Amino acid sequence: MSKEKLEQYRQRFRSELDSVVDFWLKHSHDKQYGGFFTCVGKDGKVYDELKYVWLQGRQVWMYCRLYRTMERFRRPEILEAAKAGGAFLQRFALVPSSGSPGKCAFCLTRDGRAVKVQRTIFSECFYVMAMDELSRVTGDPDMQSDAEKMMDQLVHWVRVDPSGLGRPPMPGDPPVNSMAVPMMLLCLVNQLSEGRPAVAQKYAEMADWCVKQILQHIQRDGTAILESVSPDGKELPGCQGRLQNPGHALEAGWFLLEYAQERGDVQLQKTAVDKFMEVPFLSGWDKEFGGLFYFLDVDGHCPTQLEWNMKLWWPHCEALIAYLMAYTHSKEPALLERFTQLHDYTFTHFADPEHGEWFGYLNQQGNVTLDFKGGPFKGFFHVPRCLYMCERLLDGLLDKHQG
Amino acid sequence: MSKEKLEQYRQRFRSELDSVVDFWLKHSHDKQYGGFFTCVGKDGKVYDELKYVWLQGRQVWMYCRLYRTMERFRRPEILEAAKAGGAFLQRFALVPSSGSPGKCAFCLTRDGRAVKVQRTIFSECFYVMAMDELSRVTGDPDMQSDAEKMMDQLVHWVRVDPSGLGRPPMPGDPPVNSMAVPMMLLCLVNQLSEGRPAVAQKYAEMADWCVKQILQHIQRDGTAILESVSPDGKELPGCQGRLQNPGHALEAGWFLLEYAQERGDVQLQKTAVDKFMEVPFLSGWDKEFGGLFYFLDVDGHCPTQLEWNMKLWWPHCEALIAYLMAYTHSKEPALLERFTQLHDYTFTHFADPEHGEWFGYLNQQGNVTLDFKGGPFKGFFHVPRCLYMCERLLDGLLDKHQG
Fold it and tell me: Across the interface, do B170 and A114 touch by the CB < 8 Å criterion?
């Protein structure tokens, strides 16, 4: 591919990132109570005032990452918004008397009262991401310490004793190695370790454990990535065992590739691309209408998730990052072809030139069926992270560097 | 409409009911461990061995009701299957040490180990339905007492103290009057009271309370039925407050109409039809592709449920019962026209002449997108209950009675 084509991509990701940042700066800030509105309609209008904690944490993280690493986003309004979001989280996200540091709520009212607490680790994961990245732009050691304390609690819940999560053990529901858990923890280890050798050292064994847990999801002689396996890496019975989530596998793919590149682990690099990108891409791509399915059953049964055949924005975001990173690494033209295929589908179907930001939910045929830009699970995260990562990867490919 | 047309309907519902009963008799019985497989594919093949408790209870109820009230189903294999299902429930559904009588699991392994417990009342509701109806065919007073004890616990959870459900109260999540709760409890009062004046007397005030709670869902000057309202009948903020579930409203409609007819309450009969049938039918019917939407937002925002625009089998089943019951009551031709419209859509889109039983999940355009006949929420219940109720209503319209 010509340099000109790569430069065109770079310009497109760059201008789209500007537009997406503007959208959220304009529509999502709650100047009265702090924090961010996350339920915003296609034109940015707030249609529900609930504040989803995953999305509060992710927005703080994304603002800080942009502020810290891209010169054109080093703007006071972005820093102030991130700090206000962080303060909202620190003040309201933690559920009182749920231990130390305790559980985070999943959802808060506009003024910060807890609505719901999930019995999983993910609100806490995004709290860690937010606090760590915020500590890097503010230099506040308390925030860094907050992040690390929560991380240590996460490790305790996952590897030692899950009882603090509040889900009583059930005799018919033995422990499961669920892809989301080691993926998320590996992401957090990377986050906490950047430029901090002592922290990297502290979590080195944890990172190895995460990688091993992720690799256990390669099943069926390497022909499938399954979303849930037993803790010793065996296939589970029934629908749960046969479930594939191509977008999740592709996201794990670029997490693994990044980890492997840093360590110069050639075998793991190859596994990341061959198994966590090619396998889910080839099984997950809809040959009839294009786009990646949300869920599939490895034996071809119909998944029981009603939304299985929908095309969601985030798997396409993760796939774009995965293939561009893989191409940057090996310069294998076939990988750039995949990126091009994904790019064309994604920008044609998800982007909204009229109001900015992306639609999140299409039916199998590729038509928008939920038209909001933000909802309980869609906020300022997958779209800007994809645009940001791809812009940086394209900068690298074109030898352009920015502070 | 001519008697011939009504007779054609009667024949169709009757033969479809026979076919649906045969499907589940053939494919769902677990002769090794007892209970019923509920995850069965389009051809009846089991694709997951998990046993969902709602569906175990519902299948026991439906078998017993057919056995008890329709002569052609008074067959030993149906009674034996119901008794085996009831024994499985009594042995495995109750979660040990969750109080007395305690919580029921939501899902069990094939051999009866609890997989998941919901923090709601519905597994227990279907346990009550199963045990009460089973007691009526077996004459077993212990089963009747089991049902009543569980009912009393449900009433306690709903009206006195919900803490036994295991969901800690959250400051941002005040109590809600959720349509499902009074609907379900009214259904149970009807179930327990039939032919038992002392029991009817015991729960008479409870039934009145349920009706009042259901009527609180009439909102916006009578132009909308909202799924969730405050305990004093006010609209709630945000998406939760604006949510409409047309199928649920229609189901509540025939529960109310049945209740009102028994009491000769003319005003309530009118409300049941005008508010709980016409309002949700007119707002819920898809004028472009036909069929009832699953969820809608009363202000026209996009619901956040990914499946909002899908066409599910059960709202259509409930709507068929509702309109045929309403027509039987008033003989108003417009109501029979609605029934005809629903009938034509339903039998064209959901029924499967090839393998029997009905598909459950269509996209907005009316194409099958999940092709199984049974799944975590679809079992031997809505389809046969609809066919059974409609056959009996048509029997009544045509002056045919059976023992």
Answer: yes
